[in-house]
Amino acid sequence: ARPAARTSAGSGGAAEEAEAPGAARGGHGGPREGAQDPLRARALRAGGDIEIPSRRVLITGATGLLGRAVFKEFNENNWNAVGCGYRRAQPKFEQVNLLNSVAVHDIIHDFQPHVIVHCAAERRPDVVESQPDAASQLNVAASGNLAKEAAGIGAFLIYISTDYVFDGTSPPYKETDVPNPLNLYGKTKLEGEKAVLENNEGAAVLRIPVLYGEVERLEESAVTVMFDKVQFSNKSANMDHWQQRFPTNVKDVAVVCRQLAEKRMLDPSIKGTFHWSGNEQMTKYEMACAIADAFNLPSSHLRPITDCPVVGALRPRNAQLDCSKLEMLGIGQRTPFRAGIKESLWPFLVDKRWRQTVFH
Ligand SMILES: NC(=O)c1ccc[n+]([C@@H]2O[C@H](COP(=O)([O-])OP(=O)(O)OC[C@H]3O[C@@H](n4cnc5c(N)ncnc54)[C@H](OP(=O)(O)O)[C@@H]3O)[C@@H](O)[C@H]2O)c1
User: Fold this and answer.
1) Which keywords describe this protein according to UniProt (predicted)?
2) Global pTM?
């Protein structure tokens, strides 16, 4: 039987519980002090009056592009969701340094999640190449440790991985195809997959391609970062037209995570590796043109570059993921790219900001 959460989820009761080990140590290993038992903190914030759902999910990387959407999706669908971040954690999320195994142990044992969605990672290929040891600590060692802790309490772990585990020479890729990552980022994510499945045979690996969605800064996503080059049409801009990509909305991945978790609650055979992806194939040049089109902006200043890029980490030409395994389980959602990108980018439209400045 699953152990009960340390802190009762009932109204008011949570506030009367004893201090959690994490609180006694002054946090979950982050650089700032003062993190508390998440259930207790939530109950206090809510004045003890809300009914907290009984299904608990812990989300790592909840301050990141994908993690924010995953947190929202579970939170809005009758799950008791606790998100963890690191540098951006406070005030909304728990601050947990995933490299600190005591902090990880504490939050998992305090909160007793049924499900853990592990989104935290170093996901920028060029940063991984320049800081390989730090990236490996987070992407591999911390993932293995999290998987072991999840197994210890019988929680279902979803480890988010990438299409960059494939070399992109023979798409589309099924879950059973042999990975062959071209760059160090893909290698660390693949090693992370292995570390997770070795430490937790009931875990799931969810591989996804390039993401976009609601961003705090345009640079947060390899898709949204193109927006300024699109909207400043007085300057010509070179755009990669070599690598075939499948831009995927973080909201859709979040739905997949929730549906997978809910299916697993009913069916313990749901485990192992899964693929999810948008189904619109585009180069960066084509994405930039679609963005221009979505906002009625000119695209004649955008220049397609058809040669293989020579700077930065090597990328696969076409690592298209075959998603039929999840589709057959009835899992998935796909937002059309134009609708999704418009929703994500409108706050960054220069023209709109200009109008707001002048008239408000
Ligand atoms: N973005 C993509 O296009 C893409 C494509 C394929 C797969 N993926 C995979 O999807 C997942 C999510 O990616 P993302 O784009 O959402 O990443 P992201 O926006 O870069 O967020 C990274 C997250 O990791 C957290 N983090 C970093 N160091 C940490 C530490 N020591 N302890 C605890 N947390 C730490 C960050 O927290 P703070 O910011 O609070 O420090 C942040 O929440 C990753 O596994 C990535 O490999 C992403």
Assistant:
1) NADP, One-carbon metabolism
2) 0.88
